[in-house]
């Protein structure tokens, strides 16, 4: 009896698995098509990365060179200096940018250590093109 029950159970399981509707099986979705980016995106991303690296290293000289005239004239000099100061134990994460030819925004997370805890500041960096393949930061994180 046990043997017959096992054979019947196997047969029923076989039937269920082989006759299940096609829609009930797992579907493979085609991958989302990649967004076509213009070549300037690479330069914009590099500019954002270089600027954030200057912030990470506390290199105000290289950071200031990468700021747009708009930022240099509109931001308080003390705020900019404070942004670059105290470069001990900090790093950044930069995400995929969005925008259009000549202007891109990149989501960033500024990560640091304050006392015994890690801090994370979510923000964005906006870079603009100022000339042929020249990009500058137009918004501080």
Summarize the structure.
The chain has helices spanning 2-19, 40-57, 60-65, 69-74, 77-84, and strands at residues 90-94, 98-100, 103-114, 117-131, 134-139.
Give an overview in words:
The protein has five helices and five strands. The protein has 141 residues and is an alpha+beta fold. It has a single domain, classed as Nuclear Transport Factor 2, Chain: A (Roll), CATH 3.10.450.50. Strands 1, 2, 3, 4 and 5 form a five-stranded antiparallel sheet that branches. The protein is flat. The mean pLDDT is 83.
Write the layout of secondary structure elements.
Blueprint: H1 2-19, H2 40-57, H3 60-65, H4 69-74, H5 77-84, E1 90-94, E2 98-100, E3 103-114, E4 117-131, E5 134-139
Antiparallel strand pairs: 1-3, 2-3, 3-4, 4-5
Number of domains: 1
Here the CATH topology equals Nuclear Transport Factor 2, Chain: A
Which structural class is indicated by helix and strand composition? alpha+beta
SSE series: HHHHHEEEEE
The count of DSSP E runs of length 2 or more, i.e. the number of strands, is: 5
Proper CATH architecture: Roll
**Average pLDDT, to the nearest integer?**
83
Cα-based radius of gyration, to the nearest Å: 27 Å
Q: Sheet bearing the most strands, described?
A: 5 strands, antiparallel
Inertia-based shape:
flat
Task: Catalogue the unreliable spans.
Answer: none
Oligomer: single chain
């Amino acid at each position: 009896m046990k043997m017959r029950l096992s054979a019947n159970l196997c047969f029923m399981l076989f039937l269920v698995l082989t006759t299940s509707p096609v829609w009930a099986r797992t579907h493979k979705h085609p991958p989302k098509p990649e967004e076509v980016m213009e070549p300037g995106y690479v330069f914009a991303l590099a500019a954002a990365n270089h600027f954030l690296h200057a912030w990470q290293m506390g290199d105000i000289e290289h950071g200031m060179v990468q700021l747009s005239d708009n930022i240099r004239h509109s931001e308080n000099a003390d705020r900019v200096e404070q942004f670059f100061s105290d470069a001990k134990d900090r790093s950044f994460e930069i995400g995929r940018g969005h925008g259009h030819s000549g202007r891109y925004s990149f989501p960033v997370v500024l990560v640091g250590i304050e006392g015994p805890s890690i801090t994370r500041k979510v923000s964005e960096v906006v870079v603009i093109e100022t000339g042929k393949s020249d990009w500058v930061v137009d918004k501080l994180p």
